[in-house]
Amino acid sequence: MSATIGSDNWTATTVQATNSNGVVAIAGINTTTTTQIQLRTVGLSQPGTAQIGQGMPHTALLFESNTTYTASAVIGSGTITFTKLTSQEAEGTFSFTAVSDKQTSRTVTNGKFSVRFQ
Questions:
Q1: Mean pLDDT, to the nearest integer, of 82-92?
Q2: Nearest CA to 70 among 93, 40, 115, 28?
């Protein structure tokens, strides 16, 4: 799992992923920087794009420097695209703009993942 956070390249050192009851959850953390990205989609069972935004059930979170940035049905926006999605694995891309409780935002672009579900 990798992405560009703002203008900085980020790569996860540990990735976990699950696919259960229509919920796909993918989390990557870089243990050196303690920066984490979490992606969650609801109701996807085949390749396609999940829109993150008002009224949509999908979410993306960025944990960075003791701050949580959220893109969800309430705030922020983005997409999670699955080019491959089976009961055992997923591949795809993501990008999102997430907002903290202090109303500051962070943009994540060029996101990529390739995971096997646990």
A1: 96
A2: 40
**Partners of 1 in the beta sheet?**
none
Q: What pLDDT is attached to residue 9?
A: 97
Provide the 3-class DSSP secondary structure of residue 104. Answer: coil
| Cα–Cα distance list, 53 to 7, 9, 49, 60 (Å) | 23, 24, 13, 10
Question: Does pTM top 0.70 for this prediction?
Answer: yes
Q: Which has the closest alpha carbon to 88: 24, 13, 37, 36?
A: 24
- Sort residue 103 into left (φ over 0), alpha (ψ -120 to 50) or beta: left
Q: What is the pLDDT of residues 30-82, one digit of tens each?
A: 999 899 999 999 999 899 999 999 999 999 999 998 999 999 999 999 999 99
Range of the domain at 14: 2-116
Total of domains in the chain: 1
Q: What is the CA radius of gyration of the chain?
A: 13
Cα 55 from Cα 36, distance rounded (Å) = 25
| Closest of 87, 90, 72, 69 to residue 1, by C-alpha | 90
